[in-house]
Amino acid sequence: MSTTSERGPGGWAGDVGDGVAAWLGSAQPPDQPPDPVAQGPDADPESVARTILLDQLTGRARSRRELADKLAQKHVPDDVATRLLDRFEEVGLVDDGAFARTWISQRGAGSRGLARRALAQELRRKGVDDETAREALDEIDPDDEEAAARALVRRKLRSMRGLDPQVATRRLVGMLARKGYAGGLAYAVVRDELALDDDPVVGDFDDS
């Protein structure tokens, strides 16, 4: 016969581990409706793929390759993925040309200050083919790109007061190069901005 000390909460008698398991089991919420995405492609491959695509396209545009990679991660069969991506392209929900132009506007001269070369590399990593990327990049105004380079140099100069001009030049040209600006343009812009600076770096600018 069980004693009071052998009883758990509520007068339950027996192994404590079994009691905890029983209590947790009774505390589980009722069965929830199945989540087709969580269940994976076996639930309904096309429905799952469509849900994934719509979710991925909420908030920002994505390249076709980005979407294809996401479907592959979710184990959507290749034929289903291709069929739905083609359908999404037909209705304009997937458009690598529009994606490239949007990416350039968000990362280019008017925002992050990236030049054509850096933008081309980013678009390639996103899976945009070179021809599509080139068409979008050709819309960039060279004057806007140069203006962006000058703005970047002017901002950077604020933190370079007192530096030797050779050091300042090297750092500024390197900064522009990392953002994709060609060496000739980068060097010309840096020379001009150093010469125009109202509070120049220490020393005379050397042509060598």
Automatic annotation (TrEMBL):
Q: Which HAMAP family match?
A: RecX
Which protein family is named in the record? Belongs to the RecX family.
Lineage per the UniProt record = Bacteria, Bacillati, Actinomycetota, Actinomycetes, Propionibacteriales
The primary gene name is recX
Give the organism the record lists.
Answer: Nocardioides taihuensis
- List where Low complexity composition bias occurs: 18-29
What is the role of this chain? Modulates RecA activity.
The residues covered by the RecX first three-helical domain are 49-87
**Every RecX third three-helical domain range:** 144-190
Q: Where in the cell is it found?
A: Cytoplasm
For region Disordered, the annotated ranges are 1-46
Q: What is this protein called?
A: Regulatory protein RecX
The Gly residues compositionally biased stretches are 8-17
